[in-house]
Amino acid sequence: MTRLAPKSHPRQLLALLAGSLAALGVTTATPAAAELRCSQIPRMIDAYLKHHVVHHRRTPELEQRVIDTYLKRIDSSRTLFLAGEIEALHNSMQPIFEEIEARDCKRLLQIHEQLLDHERTAEKTVRALLGAENFSLDPKVTWVIDADRRGYPATDAEQTELLRSRVHFQLLNYLSADETLAEAKRRLIHRYELRIKHLSDLDESHLYAQFLDSFAASLDPHSSYLSAEVLEDFRITMSLSLEGIGVALSERDGYAVAERIIPGGAADRHKGLKIKDKIIAVAQDGGEFVDIIDMPLRESVSLIRGKKGTQVGLTILRDGEKTERFSITIVRDKIDLSEQAARVHFEEREVAGKKLKLAILDLPSFYGDPDPTNRQSTNDVARLLREVNVEKADGLLLDLSRNGGGLLQHAVTIAGFFLREGEIVGIRNSAGQKQVLADRDDSLLYSGPLVVHTSRASASASEILAGALKDYHRAVIAGDEHTFGKGTVQTVRVLPPGQGEGAVKITTQLFFRPGGKSTQNGGVRADVVIPSLTSRDDFGEKNHPYSLLTQETTPFLGNAANGKLDTSQRWRPITDETISGLSALSQDRIRASKQFEKIREQLAKAGENGGVIHLADLMKEREEAKAATADSETSDPTDPPPTPQLEEAIHVLADLIALNG
């Protein structure tokens, strides 16, 4: 079976995510014990370029990308090097590819030594700042979360001031755990000492892996180099039987960022963690919090992951209407696969004096087991659609708003449940070869009015399903302005013995909708836009560095050779006039809704805030919430009511039924 991996970030570790090596395309061969050598890098770069779906040559533009990525990673917080020093390093790295081709990696070792020197200098500066007799938290301090926006300091004085601001926020993390100022200062200095020790202990193979991973990440957001240690995290995931909190994390600007919350996992049931939250500190079973800002992602993951029944405390930094900082406690658990399964419930609505029975089918992922006798999303959805028909529902809402992907063939099959037959998705590989997957089963499990609810969390296979139903005019798409925008698939292969350690992850295929457009970057646009807090530019594929551009191919709509829609379809096609009518009715409701008014205000304030943290605000929140910390959030709350977005999507369905008469 082919799996469209859930959306991921270049540094994403799936050690907390439900899944397996086989499902991600990883072979089960044991990785070679030999360390990565400088002489192996050119051959591995050639392998990336040979198999990548877009980039096949090492162009000057790509080389500059790699250098930029590499330098940003060695100083992710932009606090260690001055702008002039980075420019000098950038210039000095221009011959790096020719040197590596000649099996000469001394420049990477030299840059690492420079990094260590700058870390030692930063540690001395922090010691001096904290050692001042009159030191105290300065509430006037601010901090820009986005390192790219903040940039590198231009002078030594600017760098010292930047470190001073950073130290205040780091200290507040410790003080919020009820530590004394003296103890907080001691622990923060020790944190800098540990960082230096960690960098000093890295061997040459780790430095080569950093460069190779920077090369892969410069191709697109999902290609990467997995060292033997990161690959082992995948294996640990299987051995733990999916135990943990059920979150996929990525590293960005030194922060561990929640990229996806797995349906059925402990974090999903807890409801306290949201996509794009930054985890800045971790505590074990009520113990003291450990600051994980700038900690290698693999180490952060190892702190968060753990056995079923144990508790993990998380300090969260959330950038929204205002920047919030708070702590929660989650009880680790196994992923509850039943929570990931499709389910249906029925609701009643009244439109123009007529009572309607509406079915809401929630499909969190396109799950499936290699053993066909085990649970499959296709079987579950087919059974639920038969139930919808038995219940004589007037319309169906297919909820894909939290569906991050899954098995490709399952998305194709489920699309066929709503279409008589037809081409569903086109695939183009790195060699330019094309393949079209189609539904050839002329049975139709559901032919009534259909609305598909999406969000910017809808990705990969869910975008294929939504895109096909949109292109065939089979359904109305209602939700965020567009879906996530991941129209690619990655191949992950363990390196054979003698060719280094770990595995390579390469973007090898692009996917196209029947209308010819790729879901890549732009996603699937909604017919009826429903405001939500994820309607921001930092949610979605196009926000990631070097995201591949949207592409188009020749449309392959229909099940006939001429490519036209089959007029014998037993469902009523969605027209532009219908969409205009639904949008107008929806906008009237949204304008009159206090809930959506608040969402619009939060989005506007988040834009004004621009990711700037004010220490005074966090100090005030700390005092106000001192008594209400993790203890009040240890147990999972009851299921929350439907979101206003889902409620509005249900209203759109009711309107569709009324308009169709």
Kindly state the number of beta strands: 23
Query: What structural class is derived from the secondary structure elements?
Result: alpha+beta
Percent in strands: 15-25%
For the sheet with most strands, the description reads:
6 strands, antiparallel
Uncertain runs are: 5-33, 236-241, 560-567, 627-638
Q: For this structure, what is the CATH homologous superfamily of the domain at 338-595 and 645-660?
A: 2-enoyl-CoA Hydratase, Chain A, domain 1
- What percent of the residues sit in helical stretches (DSSP H or I)? 25-40%
Total DSSP helices: 20
Task: Label the overall shape.
Answer: globular
CATH-level-2 architecture of the domain at 338-595 and 645-660: Alpha-Beta Complex
Mean pLDDT: 84
Report the end-to-end length measured between terminal Cα atoms.
Answer: 42 Å
The CATH class of the domain at 338-595 and 645-660 turns out to be Alpha Beta
CATH topology of the domain at 338-595 and 645-660: 2-enoyl-CoA Hydratase, Chain A, domain 1
